[in-house]
Design a protein that fits this description.
heterotrimer, A alpha/beta, B alpha/beta, C alpha/beta, A: alpha/beta, Rossmann fold, about 25% helix, B: alpha/beta, TIM Barrel, 10 helices, globular
Chain lengths: ~200, ~260, ~375
């Protein structure tokens, strides 16, 4: 059973609708009890880092999540701010992240852009996988995915970089370590590629 | 590489889709849910739906309709119309809408932009300016379907919205609306120079070539259109259409 | 439980309760085809000569006008291929006419666009008021009858005729054809969609808003007044020329970028749901039997092929729950309410006011004058 974490941020319905149409069983998790049924977890997120970390703490699911992900090694997929929360810290805020994948979230350096617009990085962009990953199987490389963010993840270990994209320089748009996956783009809003990736995650 | 977004923009009035010319004479175009479903299957980059009477009629947004539309979108969905409070914006965001668009509220209570940005992130806050040309060739913003003029310089208003936390500006030419005779390229240049955040232009696109021109000039931009993606031919027959993947690729290929 | 008896020649069976079998086990649908339709159906040089003459009349009468005829286009194979033939083979200048009842599939919209663009034709669309359409469709669901697609079909014809009358267009071309439709849906399955008395009665009993914008026609109007008094003629060109469904489809796929549908009438999401799921599951009526039987009689499918296909349901079992939900959402009702209609008692057209007697008289007259072969029963 896939648990989609509802801590107040992120497009829960979009993930739910996709898994519904794929006939993949899922639950919207709002309490630690809900999480108990999870064989896989989706951690959505939009908005500011500190606010998201606060909401996650307030949800009461934080320690269950840590346990499930770090000890039980349940596969988890973080999206956008959900991915950024997996870092050690973020330049956007003062709170500490989940530290599931060591790294720092930095602000996109708009001075590196050749022309306007600057931030947010908004629109469809291509994604280049750095290592072989089943999660990207069947993806149309030219189509890419939809991005909507002003900060990006920098990994402490290059081994954790799953894919890169280009905007104001190359940046890690996907990270992966063991059972933990993080995507900066929005698979729940990336048409067929997104559905494919979420389906691959369900089939891992 | 980041591509320009090509965005169908749908207007809703009385639960039905309409298309206007110069914001007047709404022509009935059909049921929103089926239209959105078709656009989703046509793999559009993004979609904008605007309820054009909600603010003027002082009505709440139609949450059921928004939820139903969001459920059909596997791509980002921007909704605007009648949003006046942070609670409404958050509620709409939780229904599965990526971006909320503010129009009259952004002018009447500009601090709302900052508050909504704090709640759902600036990337999800869009400010829409409906614009008319003056006799002297300048531009002014209007509210409530072009019925009430806004005091103040349009570019200053746009800069202010950016400063307050908007993540995107949509500029809509009332003069070119529904005419299908091309975007107002001068207006686009003025606003593009004034702000740094993503810009989406609307009003006047009559062919894919109009979109190509605006992408060529500005490299990365949101090119939105209503009539172009909803009408076909001299009789303005309602038929939803959108460029194919190959056509979109050609539109995004910069020649310099 | 009564054993189902299947025709030995086609695949119609006793789910058509009025079916009759001869001493060889051949049903009356087949015999009507062999006796009444086939002998008079000329899709050869004779047919070509006849349609060429009609086309000449159309061109002559349309001289100086913006278009000389209108073609009812759904995006399905019949109307799409007809449009190609009308322009390229008959040299006509048609206005392509489409009625949007709110249920277009993406494939239909794509096909209409491709055909219209490639042939360089003009398109006119009439969009039916969705709020009224929705209410009328719900009224039909509530009535319990089997012909719940009447609102779409009725609107289609009413709109076309109104347009033709208003713009003084003398010729309407439709994709109706014997090749794929020589066997008709039994009346019991799909009663006459043009019966306005039935439509109005069901609307009166179960509708909640007035029919102000919805186009209502009636059988006397479009079978007598329009053709005989106003001179508007309905032509079915596909009956005059060889028309093979698979060959026509492949031709359009190869030359126009046409996309195939899983089954006939699937251009409309509602019709797809209605014919593949609602009708078979609520009433036991499978329209594929009618369609396949037509293809069997015209040599485009074997009986074995048809029986094989009929073994599986017409709907996608994995997706049907989602389709059901979409239909309910679009009609602004809950899934439970729609399921309620599914489980409600089955009614027939006889439970509501109707003009069937007029149709019966009319059909007899038409047959006597050789104006119509076969026809619904």
């Amino acid at each position: 059973m896939i648990a989609i974490i509802d801590y107040g941020l992120g497009n829960i319905s979009a993930f739910a609708n996709i898994y519904k149409r794929l006939n993949v069983p899922f639950i919207i998790a709002r309490t630690p009890d809900d999480l108990r049924q999870a064989s896989k977890i989706i951690l959505p997120g939009v908005g500011a880092f500190d606010y998201a970390m606060q909401r996650l703490d307030d949800s009461g699911m934080r320690s269950s999540l840590d346990e499930l992900v770090l000890e039980c090694k349940i596969p988890v997929l973080g999206v956008c701010v959900g991915m950024q929360m997996m870092a050690t810290s973020s330049d956007e805020g003062v709170k500490l992240g989940l530290n599931w994948i060591k790294g720092v979230v930095k602000k996109i350096d708009a001075t590196k852009l050749a022309h306007k617009p600057t931030t947010p990085h908004m629109g469809w962009n291509q994604v280049s996988p750095k290592k072989d990953a089943d999660i990207f199987a069947g993806i149309d490389d030219e189509q890419g995915f939809y991005f909507l963010h002003s900060y990006y993840f920098t990994c402490a270990n290059d081994d954790d970089i799953l894919a890169v994209s280009e905007y104001a320089g190359h940046f890690s748009c996907a990270v992966h370590r063991d059972n933990i996956y993080g995507f900066q783009f929005h698979p729940e809003k990336s048409l067929l590629n997104g559905v494919c990736l979420l389906k691959n995650f369900a089939n891992l | 590489m980041l591509r320009s977004r090509i965005i169908p923009c749908l207007l809703v009035r009385d639960k039905g889709l309409v298309k206007t010319v110069n914001f007047k004479n709404p022509k009935y175009v059909g049921d929103p849910i089926n239209a959105v479903k078709i656009f989703n299957e046509k793999l559009v980059d993004e979609l904008i739906v605007l309820d054009i009477d909600a603010s003027r009629d002082k009505r709440e947004p139609d949450y059921k309709m928004i939820e139903n539309l969001a459920a059909e979108c596997r791509m980002p969905f921007c909704y605007g119309g009648g949003i006046k409070t942070v609670e409404q914006a958050v509620r709409i965001s939780n229904l599965g809408v990526e971006k909320v668009a503010l129009s009259s509220a952004a002018i009447e209570t500009p601090e709302l932009i900052s508050h909504i940005a704090a709640a759902i992130g600036r990337q999800s806050v869009v400010v829409v300016f409906d614009v008319r040309k003056t006799l002297f060739g300048n531009y002014e913003a209007y509210l409530f379907n072009g019925s009430k003029k806004v005091k103040g310089d349009l570019l200053a208003l746009a800069k202010h919205a950016e400063h307050l936390g908007a993540g995107e500006i949509v500029v809509n030419s009332i003069d070119n609306d529904g005419k299908m005779a091309g975007y107002d390229e001068k207006l686009i240049r003025l606003v593009r120079d004034a702000i740094d955040i993503p810009l989406t232009v609307l009003g006047g696109a009559g062919s894919l070539n109009d979109i190509k021109k605006v992408i060529q000039e500005h490299k990365v931009i949101g090119a939105a259109a209503g009539s172009l993606f909803v009408f076909k031919g001299v009789y303005k027959a309602v038929l939803i259409n959108y460029p194919s993947i190959a056509e979109k690729k050609a539109l995004n290929t910069l020649t310099n | 439980m009564l054993r189902v008896k299947v025709c030995s020649n086609c695949v119609m069976d006793t789910s058509d309760s009025k079916i009759q079998f001869d001493e060889n086990g051949v049903c009356d649908h087949c015999n009507t085809f062999y006796n009444d339709i086939k002998p008079h159906w000329h899709a050869d040089e004779k047919g070509l000569a006849a349609i060429t003459k009609i086309a000449d009349d159309i061109k002559r009468e349309g001289r100086g006008k913006e278009f000389d005829c209108i073609i009812g286009m759904s995006g399905g194979i019949d109307s799409s291929y007809l449009t190609y033939l009308a322009k390229e083979k008959l040299g006509l200048r048609p206005l392509v006419f489409h009625v949007d009842a709110g249920w277009n599939s993406q494939i239909a919209v794509n096909n209409i666009e491709k055909i219209v663009d490639k042939l360089g034709l003009d398109l006119y669309t009439e969009v039916i008021d969705w709020e009224e359409m929705k209410d009328l469709q719900l009224a039909f669901f509530k009535s319990g009858v089997s012909h719940i697609d009447s609102p779409q079909d009725h609107a289609f014809f009413a709109t076309m005729y109104k347009f033709a009358e208003k713009h003084k267009v003398d010729y309407i071309l439709t994709g109706g054809n014997y090749s794929t439709e020589c066997v008709r849906n039994p009346l019991e399955w799909m009663y006459y969609q043009s019966d306005s008395r039935q439509l109005r009665d069901i609307h009166k009993k179960f509708g909640t808003r007035p029919l102000k914008n919805y186009p209502v026609t009636n059988i006397l109007w479009h079978k007598i007044v329009l053709p005989y008094l106003k001179g508007i003629k309905l032509i079915r060109p596909l009956d005059f020329m060889p028309y093979q469904k698979e060959q026509a489809t492949q031709f359009l796929v190869d030359n126009f970028g046409y996309q195939r549908y899983a089954q006939k009438h699937f251009e409309s999401r509602f019709t797809k749901f209605y014919e593949s799921y609602w009708l078979p599951n609520k009433f036991g009526y499978d329209t594929r039997k009618v369609q396949f039987s037509s293809l069997i009689l015209t040599g485009q499918m074997t009986r074995d092929e048809a029986l094989e296909k009929l073994n599986a349901p017409a709907y996608d079992e994995e997706q049907i729950a989602h389709e059901f939900e979409y239909i309910a959402t679009k009609l602004d009702i809950s899934v439970a309410e729609l399921q309620g209609y599914m489980g409600a008692p089955n009614k027939t057209y006889r439970d509501y006011k109707n003009q069937q007697s007029i149709y019966e008289v009319g059909a007899k007259v038409m047959r006597v004058f050789g104006l119509e072969k076969g026809g619904k029963r």
